[in-house]
Amino acid sequence: MLKKRHAKKLVAEINVVPYIDVMLVLLVIFIVTAPLLQQGVAVDLPQASAKALPPSEKEPIVISVDSAGNYYLNIADKPHATIDKKDLTLRVMAELEREPKRKVLVKADSSVNYGKVIAAMVVLQQAGAATVGLVTQDDAASKTARKSQGSSQTHG
Fold first, then answer.
1. How many domains does the chain have?
2. Residue 56 forms part of a structural domain
3. What CATH number does the domain containing 123 carry?
4. What are phi and psi for residue 49, nearest 5 degrees?
5. Taking the C-alpha atoms of 37, 43, 49 and 52 in order, what is their torsion angle to the nearest 10 degrees?
6. Do the domain assignments include residue 126?
7. In Å, what is the CA distance from 68 to each residue of 84, 111, 115?
8. Distance of alpha carbon 93 from the chain centroid
9. Residue 100 falls within a domain, yes or no?
10. In this predicted model, what pLDDT tens digit does every residue of 29-84 receive, in sequence order?
């Protein structure tokens, strides 16, 4: 007796488990790196109503002044490390020689001594910055943030 051979049926399933593993690894990487994307040092900005600047091609030079009066430079090798006035002047001067039209901004904590902000502006002027802008927080955004913080504190 001859046995009939049945043709094996092809299985058309795709194993997606490796793809899910890769997606989960990428998700973890993005979750870990997202907080690091904030530029500069965290400061409590003063509130003001002003129009936002239009986006430019090149990232502006931002000098941050924290509540203790320490200076930070976003284009430095270590942007989260304090920088002294001499190094700040030299680094900004070199950057402005390469790109004279680059915007220069000062981002200072609202509780910092006004003299520290002026000193930062003088350093920038000595480095060759023609104009210096000040970074502020929008009044509407700060009021909304304070309301949400207040409501979460009263319910908590």
1. 1
2. no
3. 3.30.420.270
4. -95, 110
5. -30
6. yes
7. 14, 9, 12
8. 23
9. yes
10. 999 888 777 666 666 666 666 666 566 567 888 888 998 889 999 888 888 888 88
